[in-house]
Amino acid sequence: AVASIVGRRDLLAALFMLTMILAHSRASRRGGFELLVPILAYVCAMLSKEVGAVGIGLVLLHDYLLVQRQPTGRRVDRRTLILYGSYAVLLLAFLAVRYVVVGGVGVGAVSPFDNPAAQTSTGMRWLTAFAVIGKGVTLQVAPFRLSPDYSYDAIPLVEGFADLRFIASLIALAATSAFAVQKRRSRPLYLLALGWYGLCLLPASNILFPVGTIFGERLLYIPSVAVCVVAAVAVGAVSRRGPAWTLPALAAVVLVSLAARSIRYASVWSDDLSLFSEAARTAPRSTKVQLNLGAALLRDGRVEAALSAAQRAVTIAPDNYKALVLVGESNRELGRRVESERALRQALSIKPEYADALYGLGKLQRDQSRLDEAGELWRRVLELDPGHAGALSDLGTLHFVRGDLRRAREYSERAVEANPSQANAWYNLGLLYELQGDAERARRAFEEFVRVAGPPYEAQVEEIRRRLE
Prior knowledge:
Oligomer: single chain
Shape: elongated
Distance between the termini: 43 Å
Number of helices: 21
Radius of gyration: 28 Å
Strand content: under 5%
Order of helices and strands: HHHHHHHHHHHHHHHHHHHHH
Helix content: 55-70%
């Protein structure tokens, strides 16, 4: 959740949920304007991420286990009732607004590549969800095989009760629940932690309804508060019973190990190639991992390796039309026109009018000097996807070589606006600005080209560097 920007939502939701609980206790005692703090925190938690909605459940659990069951604990008073009522009204309002905006409480249609459990029976989805919960708990304790993606088929579906993953998860859950209930009076924090973990994981667990992914490490960020609570209780127990040196030594080992693991894992996020090379090692059965690895390898100029990764993605999921397009593009780069066209047309047979497949066919036409046919295909691409940077860039080049500088500039500027890393468009813009006498804009465009161009543009980069000097 720290390494990926999409995890920002989890960080914000956790911040506001913790604020809500701490402020709730204070507001219940003091009242007045302080009643507004947990209410506003609850709103911010829900608006950060939908899981924030469970904040009301966490507050109820906290009050029941840690406040009202203590001999000196307060009973439910007017201030507490005001807070509970406000939370309930806000939750209903949030759910109503979400229903109006997205048409339901769930996430709608889910791709089987992102979440294969979404396309199965309810029973199989629940069995798989329990196995996935077990995997998540394992990673909380021993985070040694991490991956940015667990889509199809990184986590095979659980097809029956005899699956060892389901059995192990069920036994662990039953044992943990029994232990927490047994200790509910002497160590109520254990039961609080169990409830926290379950409530915070439930919205994304695929138990209530299918969600957008079968599993993601970022989904464990808010539930990990429960792990910290259990660790705190354990530290307290060790500090009271063991020798004085035990706790510092244990803490040092744990902290150094986890810090080293965090630094190691964060370092692989330095670029796409590093990230998906690591992901292919830890989650080799993910078709999206192999696809993203192939795309990164192709950008790096390692075409044969890119083709191998793309073919592995297709082997895992034969209907992965995006991987088929990458197979086509890699074969085109290797001069295998027939294999390239076959893969692109297979992608179109799975998803007709897929913009990237049509774009690839256009490049095949261009390679055979059929510029009119290529231009027609690229214009069809823009009808399907007006922001397709590749089609915009190539249409810019096409109009450039035909002498239509106005339209060449228009398409090239739209291309870099759609994708600032579109090297070919920056190169064209540099030439176009130079032809029009705008030396300053030409220089900036050429500098951007040098910055974003990869291995396929080595010769042009050297040429432009000499000209810039």
